[in-house]
Each structure stands twice: as C-alpha cells, then as structure tokens.
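Co-fold these.
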Amino acid sequence: GENVEQHPSTLSVQEGDSAVIKCTYSDSASNYFPWYKQELGKRPQLIIDIRSNVGEKKDQRIAVTLNKTAKHFSLHITETQPEDSAVYFCAATLSNSGYALNFGKGTSLLVTP
Amino acid sequence: NAGVTQTPKFQVLKTGQSMTLQCAQDMNHNSMYWYRQDPGMGLRLIYYSASEGTTDKGEVPNGYNVSRLNKREFSLRLESAAPSQTSVYFCATSLVGAEETQYFGPGTRLLVL
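Predicted complex below.
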C-alpha cells in the first residue's frame, strides 16, 4: 500500500528549543495532511493540518510546511515546553478512499526542563 | 454532546472467541473509520465507511468485519479472535465535504489470550 514515512522515531530537546519532525508520502493524489498529538493512554488529537493548495500554515508555536513536488511535509514546534512531550503522528489521505488516513509510525518527543 | 464514544473500554478474550466493538457519534458526521494501534506501528486503517450504507477495506481488514448500522453507529466484529489482534482499537469520524478533520474516540484496549 501507499506509505507515509516519519522521522525521527524519537526526539529529545531541551525546553525552549525547537523541534522538527519530517514526513514523506508516496501517494501523489494525497491532498490533506494532518498532524496528531497523542499523550500516553489517550486518543490522538489534531494539532494542525494543511491542504495541498497551501505551502505553509502556522498556529502559535506550531507550524507545518508542505512540499508537494518532493512529497514531504514537516512539523515545527518552537519554544518547546514540557507539556509538548507526547507522540506525534503525521498522516496523508489515501486516494480513492474519501478521507481515510495513512499514518506515519510516530515520533516520541521528550522535552526536558 | 458526547462526540465519539466507544464500548467497551477494555476487553479480554480467549483465542477463538468473538466480540463486537461499538462506536457511536453524535457529531452528524458522514464518514467513520476503524484503526488499530500497535506499539511502533502507528495507526493502521482496518475498515472505513464513507457514508451510511457503504463500507470498504483498509490496510489490514483480515479477520474483521464491519457494519454501518446507521449514520451514528459503526461496529467492528472479530469473528474468531487471535492473539495477533491484541491491540488498541480507535474509531474516528469526519464530515467529508465540509472539513476533513478526523475526530477519534477514546479507544478500546483488546487483549486476546
């Protein structure tokens, strides 16, 4: 099937530093790219998303960039805080499936005080 | 509004037993999805229902069946559970055509012995 590759699998940063997570996808028909945050034992929660007609989107400390030509998109978290510690998942829509999502395997982010 | 609800929250089965996982939503969404989450594997799509009356296979449908009972409810059935089906199961919903955001239920933890 179509794949979404996510890197790195683990990321440790100091409080106040920036964190970047990168994803690549293979389905050229994908047109919607959400990012989810999942805390331990909880459900995934959407933090930001981007559509294929936009190159960048920002929401306070979080930003996402999309390069459709290269088929990659990235999550940027600035001024990280300990409460940002969680697992982050990128996803891309599966073609011919409405808006079913193909997820990356996740990045475990640890922000140390 | 309850949003997306799932029952049960936790279940232990013996190999070969059957069970149905229930998902209901009061968000008036048209599309519903079932994912499974295993450590290090991200979320993988089992089945989805783009609209009431339709269901389609996802990435990992083997060993599962689904029923879109009505607009609100989408159930996942394991006819003969296997240890490989030990996982956390998430139901999600979205309003395709208006916004693509998928909202997740709290999950069902299933252990098959």
